[in-house]
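Recap from last week: sequence in, structure out.
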Amino acid sequence: MLDRIVAAFEQDDLLGLVFPSDPHLVGWDENRQIAAVIAAKFGWEGALPEHFDFPLRNMFWIRRSALQPLLDLRLT
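Predicted structure tokens:
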């Protein structure tokens, strides 16, 4: 599987994040207010979606250029 992921990154410069699918989409719970503040810093306009697909725990691969905008926020 790792070979397929590395190949996908090599073949598609726009691919920024790969993670396993999860059949159970989750909501924000108590993180909605924090997420809204961070989303605004990224220029997000409008309401955040109720549910979303995202990597759980540490099961993901990310291209540094895709992560860099988040790192640049210098969150604490």
